[in-house]
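To illustrate the input format used throughout this study, we show a single complete record. The first block contains the structure-token representation of the backbone; no residue identities are included at this stage. The design step must infer an amino acid for every position from geometry alone.
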């Protein structure tokens, strides 16, 4: 087969619909996050969902920790601009309630739901509601029999637990399944998902490094783990877990997809790291350009370069850019010089040129 037409693992998975978002079957890798608000407070949760939607989130998950949160959950599902997944642990009755109150999907870990009879009740409820289930297996909550085995590594335990659950769902005739098997270790994540992609090639995979940490550490771990998997064609939807405002998760997810050349919705800023040749204070210039570009919803590439060495030549593929020099900068388009601008006007002139070349691009700023 010609390498240009060779199918990736994500092209071979079964397509599952989470609300109006396709997951699997070659659909674009979708971006998810999870609300940090109390689900019982529907107004606060909906406000956060709208912020996440503006940032590019496509599927949202909310916790349903108790029966008191079900009324709020129902309102959230009715008013949310995004499909809402109910995150359920321990009490299968909450899963039944969420399925009946408008959930676009459920996320359950069969390992902590209880007996198979309870798991089957959840499967039946989702079948009747016509909604999918994400089977979410975590390193900290494996099937008890699998967890007790000393002959298996952690990735092998995660895979064995996931396979057992998927097989049970299939025996019940329920196929609208998305699967995750998460750990906080990048090597464990890679080994687990690579194996799952081979042993369950038809099951869409939700990828991510769980409990990855705060913004810096969490971004690095997710970029390493999820980035490698996506480049290998593994992963149909993703949540990049960060101990931060969930809007940051969405921003990092889109940066990752953009860096891999998979999906673009926002500008890319190309900027050099500076060196002794630089004759302007580059860092605040690049930071200010990045700040002004943050709300632009256009997949343009903008370059801020410190000198002629890394100027129009290395950034010739940028839509627009500046190469800084002593007291001034050269504004360029696609590597072609346009005009010189004074050092104190670099950012303003660059942004004005963006508006001229891409009318309306800065309207959201």
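Output of the design step:
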């Amino acid at each position: 087969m010609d390498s240009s037409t060779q199918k990736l693992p994500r092209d071979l998975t079964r397509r599952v619909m989470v609300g109006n978002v396709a997951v699997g079957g070659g659909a674009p890798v979708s971006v998810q996050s999870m609300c940090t608000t109390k689900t019982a407070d529907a107004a606060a949760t909906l406000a956060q969902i709208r912020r996440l939607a503006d940032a590019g989130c496509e599927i949202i998950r909310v916790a349903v920790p108790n029966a008191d949160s079900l009324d709020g959950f129902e309102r959230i599902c009715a008013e949310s601009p995004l499909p809402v997944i109910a995150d359920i642990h321990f009490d299968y009755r909450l899963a039944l309630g969420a399925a009946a109150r408008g959930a676009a999907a459920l996320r359950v870990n069969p390992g902590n739901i209880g007996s198979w009879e309870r798991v089957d009740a959840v499967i039946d409820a989702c079948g009747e509601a016509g909604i999918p289930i994400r089977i979410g297996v975590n390193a900290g909550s494996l099937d008890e029999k699998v967890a007790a085995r000393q002959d298996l590594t952690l990735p092998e335990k995660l895979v064995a637990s996931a396979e057992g659950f998927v097989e049970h769902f299939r025996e019940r005739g329920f196929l609208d399944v998305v699967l995750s098997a998460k750990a906080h270790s990048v090597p464990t994540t890679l080994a687990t998902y690579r194996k799952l992609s081979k042993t369950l090639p038809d099951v869409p995979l939700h990828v991510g490094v769980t409990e990855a940490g705060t913004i810096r550490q969490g971004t690095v771990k997710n970029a390493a783990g999820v980035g490698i998997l996506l480049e290998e064609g593994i992963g149909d939807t993703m949540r990049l877990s960060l101990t931060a405002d969930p809007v940051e998760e969405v921003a990092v997810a889109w940066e990752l997809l953009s860096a891999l050349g998979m999906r673009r919705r926002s500008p890319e800023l190309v900027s050099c790291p500076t060196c002794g040749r630089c004759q302007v204070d580059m860092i605040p210039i690049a930071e200010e350009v990045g700040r002004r570009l943050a709300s632009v919803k256009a997949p343009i590439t903008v370059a801020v370069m410190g000198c002629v060495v890394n100027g129009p030549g290395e950034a010739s593929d940028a839509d627009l850019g500046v190469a800084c020099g002593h007291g001034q900068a050269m504004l360029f388009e696609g590597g072609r010089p346009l005009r010189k601008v004074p050092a104190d006007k670099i950012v303003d002139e660059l942004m004005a040129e963006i508006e001229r070349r891409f009318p309306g691009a800065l309207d959201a700023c």
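Structural context for interpreting the output: The longest helix spans residues 154-171. The chain has a mean pLDDT of 91.
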